[in-house]
């Protein structure tokens, strides 16, 4: 049996060789017949046809050198698999290259092809692009100015290396037509390149959500608070809306917290960008008052709160579960007024700033270590003596400052602004303007 099997295999091999030889023979016959016909034509038509024939033979030889022959089916499948792997590698390399480009260039590259457009618009790429900016680049600064006709959002960069540091306009320049604009127009802190613009003095003006990097904005419908004010003409204590992103689903939500000063209760409305509607939250804390402006960090919004006995803590709101939670911190608990302590977000980390009334204007900046624990631990990073950098009296509330940004490249360089005005201590932005640090984004939820 083994001999028969060996003979059978040999016969199959011989049969394959004969088939291959037959194919090559037929190919040579076709070549020779084609050559003969071409030679006959050359005699009749001249040397031009002879040149064409030599070119054709050269191309055939080049093709043979490139191994463009008929492969067995197993080899053809392997080559097809290799081609697919090559395309995937090229896509990965392309992604790594364009990941380092600014948003302005990426918006232009979306018109190259449908494939590029899908890749750049994907949630995965947007998240990677934002993470790369926060890790490797200095933040940009959004300058908000108005001329009583329209809002102008200008992207600027800060030259940390110069002394003193200076702002340089980069663009784009984004004009938002808004009929009701005055000196009370405010802009929220940036959340992944998105900002909220609103008028803190007029509840009749709707909130505007904008992405200056891609020059897009959308006006939100009036909230329940705003409609109630239009009906009752009773203005509540107005606070800054907080924009946050769900770390699980990637959806954006706008949370607006209001104090009821008569009975120490909080009311809260949430605008869900998925359904594009406002809705009330019923599980808000009681017997507390909240600070005016929240911050966002890693899926949570945070406010400083105080109860009737002036005990200060931090109130957190989970964007995903929509649940409130109270945190404590030693620095915050020592506050005597809301303006004597503040919190901010730098590189997705929560910072606490405090000033001591009897310390002659000395401000201390600390970074929180564990935001998920009930008791926040903090490490002191640096202090600023306002008497050395500011001519104002340290007892004046307008001299209280807020930490805006720190430099990744230039150690011990940071940017601060005056509290309640967002105007910088060291720099001189355009008059009547507000400056907000942000990272440019491709996101737009509406």
UniProtKB/TrEMBL annotation:
Disordered: region residues: 1-29
Chain intervals with Polar residues compositional bias: 10-25
Alphabetical list of Pfam families matching this protein: F-box, FBA_1
InterPro entries in alphabetical order: F-box-assoc_dom_typ1, F-box-assoc_interact_dom, F-box-like_dom_sf, F-box_dom, SCF_F-box_component
Coiled coil: none
Domain of life per record: Eukaryota
Annotated F-box domain residues: 89-129
Name listed for the protein in its UniProt record: F-box domain-containing protein
């Amino acid at each position: 049996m083994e001999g028969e099997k060996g003979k059978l295999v040999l016969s199959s091999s011989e049969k394959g060789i004969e088939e291959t030889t037959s194919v090559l023979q037929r190919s040579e016959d076709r070549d020779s017949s084609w050559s003969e016909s071409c030679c006959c034509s050359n005699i009749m038509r001249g040397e031009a046809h002879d040149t064409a024939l030599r070119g054709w033979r050269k191309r055939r030889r080049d093709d043979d050198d490139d191994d463009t022959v008929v492969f067995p089916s197993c080899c053809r499948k392997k080559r097809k698999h290799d081609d697919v792997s090559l395309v995937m590698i090229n896509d990965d390399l392309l992604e790594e290259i364009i990941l380092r480009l600014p948003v302005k260039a990426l918006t232009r590259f979306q018109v190259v092809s449908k494939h590029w457009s899908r890749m750049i618009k994907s949630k995965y790429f947007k998240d990677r692009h934002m993470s790369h900016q926060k890790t490797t680049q200095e933040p940009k600064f959004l300058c908000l100015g108005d001329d009583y006709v329209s809002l102008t959002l200008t992207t600027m960069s800060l030259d940390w290396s110069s002394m003193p540091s200076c702002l340089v306009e980069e663009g784009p320049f984004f004009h938002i037509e808004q009929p009701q604009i005055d000196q009370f127009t405010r802009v929220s802190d940036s959340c992944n390149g998105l900002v909220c613009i609103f008028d803190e003095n007029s509840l009749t003006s709707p909130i505007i959500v904008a992405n200056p990097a891609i020059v897009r904005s959308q006006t939100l419908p009036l909230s329940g608070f705003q409609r109630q004010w239009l009906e009752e003409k009773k203005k509540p204590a107005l606070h800054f809306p907080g924009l946050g992103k769900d770390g699980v689903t990637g959806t954006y939500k706008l949370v607006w917290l209001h104090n009821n000063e008569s009975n120490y209760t909080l009311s809260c409305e949430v605008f869900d960008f998925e359904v594009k509607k406002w809705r009330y939250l019923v599980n808000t804390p009681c017997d507390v008052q909240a600070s005016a402006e929240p911050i966002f960090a890693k899926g949570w919004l945070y406010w400083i709160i105080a109860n009737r006995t002036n005990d200060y803590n931090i109130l957190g709101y989970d964007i995903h579960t929509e649940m409130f939670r109270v945190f404590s911190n030693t620095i915050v608990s020592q506050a005597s007024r809301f303006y004597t302590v503040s919190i901010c977000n730098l590189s997705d980390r929560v910072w606490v700033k405090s000033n001591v009334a009897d310390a002659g204007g000395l401000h201390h900046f600390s970074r929180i270590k564990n935001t998920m624990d009930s008791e926040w631990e903090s490490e002191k990073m640096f202090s600023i003596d306002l008497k050395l950098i500011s001519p104002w009296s340290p007892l004046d509330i307008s001299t209280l400052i807020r930490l805006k940004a720190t430099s990744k490249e230039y150690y011990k360089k940071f940017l601060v602004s005056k509290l309640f005005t967002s105007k910088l201590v060291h720099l001189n932005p355009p008059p009547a303007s507000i400056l907000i640090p942000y990272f440019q984004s491709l996101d737009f939820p509406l």
